[in-house]
Amino acid sequence: MRRNRSYSIEFKKQISQEYLAGETLHGLAKRHGVNRNLIRLWVEKYEAGAFDDDEAAANILQQYEARIAALERLAGKLALENEFLKGASHKVHQTRNGVSSVITGPMVSPSAKDVE
């Protein structure tokens, strides 16, 4: 079974311009493997200026997709930084709880020998 194909706006414009330049529907359909009725629809849309609106919408969509990708990268970077800082803050809290000295370092627990 044949699946529906999607054609670019540039391709549709090209076919429409070729038809308006004098090419026959049969010749265009055979050369590009497109249904003649579909070419008629494209020509009507081209003459109505619908492809210009579609192209502008496609450009806006492309800009939005690029912006979304940039924001997703930023969110991933910030998530990594957040995890790193959480780990660093746990280590800082652990060292603050223990008694330590700048000169001698952290206090060691007394051994059995020192207790006597």
Explain this structure.
The chain is mainly alpha-helical and 116 residues long. The chain has 2 domains: 7-48; 52-96. 73% of the residues lie in helices and 3% in strands. A two-stranded antiparallel sheet has the order 1-2. Strand 1 and strand 2 (105-106) form a beta hairpin. The longest helix is centred in the middle third of the chain and has 48 residues, at 50-97.
Keywords:
2 domains; two-stranded antiparallel sheet
In short:
With 116 residues, the protein is mainly alpha-helical.
User: How large is the share of residues in beta strands?
Assistant: under 5%
Average pLDDT taken over every residue: 82
Domain tally = 2
pLDDT under 50 segments (min length 5)? none
Helix content: over 70%
- The separation of the N and C termini measures 92 Å
Write the layout of secondary structure elements.
Layout: H1 9-20, H2 25-32, H3 36-48, H4 50-97, E1 100-101, E2 105-106, H5 112-115
Antiparallel strand pairs: 1-2
Helix pairs in contact: 1-3
